[in-house]
Write a structure and sequence with these properties.
Elements (H helix, E strand, L loop, with lengths): L1 E3 L5 E3 L5 E2 L4 H12 L7 H9 L7 H16 L4 E4 L2 E4 L7 H14 L3 H13 L13 H27 L3 H14 L4 H13 L3 H18 L6 H12 L29 H11 L7 E5 L6 H9 L10 E5 L9 H12 L2 H4 L8 H8 L5 E6 L5 H14 L3 E7 L8 E5 L11 H5 L2 H13 L10 H10 L4 H7 L8 H11 L11 H15 L3 H10 L8 H8 L9 H10 L4 E3 L2 E3 L2 H13 L3 H20 L7 H10 L1 H13 L3 H17 L3 H12 L13 H16 L20 H16 L4 H18 L2 H11 L7 H15 L2 H17 L3 H18 L2 H17 L3 H17 L3 H18 L2 H16 L1
Parallel strand pairs: 6-9, 6-10, 7-8, 8-9
Antiparallel strand pairs: 1-2, 2-3, 4-5, 11-12
Length: 928
Amino acid sequence: MRYGVLGPLVVWDAAGLPVKVPEAKVRALLANLLVHGGRPVPADRLIEDLWAGDAPAGSANALQTKISQLRRVLGRDQVVREPAGYRLLLADGMVDALRFQDLAERARAHGEPAVRGALLADALALWRGPAYADVAESLFARGEIARLEELRLTVLEDRAEVRLTLGEHPALAVELGELVARYPLRERLRMAHMRALYRAGRQGDALRSFQELRRELDVELGVEPGPGAVALHGAILRQEPHLAPPTVESPACRTNLPAPLTALIGRREAVGRVRALLGPESGARLVTLTGLGGVGKTRLATAAAHEPADRFPDGVWLVELAGLAATSSADDIAERVITTLGLCDTAASEPDLEDLVGWLCRAVSEKRLLILLDNGEHLIEQVAALAGAVLASVPGGRLLVTSQEALDIPGEVVHPVPPLALPEGTGLGAVARSGAVELFVRRASAAVPGFVLDEDNAAAVSAICRRLDGIPLALELVAPRLRTLSPQELAARLDSRFTPEVRVRGLPARQRTLRSMLDWSWQLLSADERAVLRRLTVHADGCTLRSAEVVCADPDLPAERVSELLSRLVDRSLVVREAGRFRLLESVAAYGAERLAEAGESAAVHARFVRCHTELAERQDGLLRGPDQRRCLERLDAETNNLRRALDLAVTGKAAGHAVRLVNAMAWYWFLRGRLTEARRSFQSALGADAGPAPTAAPAARPTARAWLAGLELRTAPTGAPPLPPGADPTAGIGDARLRARLQWFIGTGWIAHEDHDAARRLLEAGLAGARAAGDRWGEAAALVELVGLEPARGASRAELGAALFHEVGDGWGRLRATRSLALVAERDGDAGRTERLYREGLLVAEELGLWTEVVETLLRLGDTALTRGRPQQATDLYERARSVAAERAYSRGEIHAEVGLGRAAGHRGDQESADRHRNRALAKGRR
């Protein structure tokens, strides 16, 4: 069980589903035990607290009855009777208030502002409303409520200061206004607001904020502001330089480049040459690094791509192509680029299903960015087609490609990557200066602590590096052998190993060297180590330990042994472990795939891989509508490429049952991430797959998939051209009442975009009735909040009930939708203050979940509200922020609406020139 007290009291079971705690007294009892944090509470104290001094006759028996009722809900062993009283068994992480405190402490201990800000945001996202809302009037809870509220405000202040450090003053100036109005006496909060206003160019507002603080303190407490606030006021008056916005990295220099695990050795000059090729002076816009596998193309490319922010203000992005099948199209590569850049998170209905390359080029046509397409040798024609389109359409874009061969298209600059430099002499100094030797010695000293290059071993080390042709991967594979062999013995083994008779024929000399090195490393492995290594190759983007255990284990290799075997492979440099995942270098993966085919295991391993990731998606889907939503989104983000690979294998392997199960499980994730085009293509692929001899999906799986597809097609079809007749109900034939109700909601909301409110209302009402009959609180809440816009007369009650249900189930996206419906009701009632407050609550949720379309739409609504309240400067700040996020994510509709809003705000300020400029920009963007 897990407990939520940061809002209405809620209990979640192990699956993340809410558990109903009946009766107010039982809920108060649970709250009392939670307030005491797992410490025993005497029975007489519980009686006093529960009945507030008016205990019934036989109060001990009455308390025992409530204890029994609580035990029936939580489990008998969860409420323990001890001599000192009753206590609730609590482990780490079981109470959201404790998780909140832990995240806040971790944030304060971290030195990196961006990480600190993210941890503080995670902490604040746990709040669903006022702490212990159910028992707020009870004396036993007041002290804890006050403590938690003070902690929350302190974290809000901490986060505000972090955001000032990160240069987010324009948005912060707007957002802190509401908090300052609510808590006018908090000087630290007021000072953060003053700094944000000043840095946003609003010195007058900053000074007025100080005067408001002085007036409030005088009226409420009869005191003056503290020395810190007074000093800040004086500094603002004098416009002291230290108040200027800090110099921070441009927020546009977003990147997914991995941090290197080890230093790049022997490539300093090469890095400089590649960076020069990518520089503005060279004029090159496509640079291809070519070379044999294992030579270090990827390491060189990622090192060269770490450029200053001002060179590529729209980011530097690594797109891994090794996981794509050779049959993939240019559109498949474009889809991976779109996903990597985060564009599909906000693209909604805009991408063209039949031309993702064209859509990508239009989306980034005005951006200045560097895209690194890594390991493209098996997709030469497709990469060339994409690269040609990008070069023709994106003048500010640069492409860096790694491949074993060139793309051979106009404008390409080819940069061969040779092996590391070999020793030029036999002396210790000459040997030590070699890049190949430096790498070997570094890896050898990591494997054998205390190993150094000296006069005794220099000749042997030089021979080893020469024998391995200076190929980095070969050097890394052989270095751990020094645990059992001396350098001289290792050199002798290599001499006998790499005789001409045993070299692989038909390959270039250096490629034969690497192949022989891989062969030798393979032969030194045990049978079980070989099995794990070859089976790991099915993963497109690394794997977790759990996935490795499922995919690699079989009747002859127990899953519990996989961890130990992986550790050995990491020690031998055949597997890389980073950030909790296990990965194979591209050359090792290619070699392992050959061995997998030779062993005749491909079909069995592919089947386990598909089953593993189908079950993973189904488990996460079960948690995506509750308090673990953000964690599930992040887990599925990390597994995106593997899930895509699983779907491809299921479709091509005639496992349509698993394909349909997988897309059904992924549908809600795709929707939350806004990846509707990927979802639509995936459903079409799964439904069109050959079922094979033995279907592996439930009979309702295909009707379910067709219903999801119908809802997706409604959302991606041009407005006014729906793909379904209005009276259709694609959910017919789905026997699961809860699932059918949810799909009726999903399809019904799709009709709203086509302005067919009758069709939408009919399906939403059916979904609401079905959810209530099935006892599905999430489905009921979803239908209620969407019906608010269709039935204004009943909007208020439905919005409030929907919000309460979403709070109860702990769904962040649901809370966002509910606050929007509540804001719509407040807007209709003319309550602009409540409207703004609700939109701000929704904005925080959207940002925490990374739902960038929702962020833009909420900012636009906040801007509209500010204009309604006669605050054109505040509206301008909000519209500017909306435009910035929309441009970053290629959300063109959001950009257009933001420009329109900026024009309206300028008109309200009397700046007609700016108003005309923004309106013209909106018109221009709308014609594209």
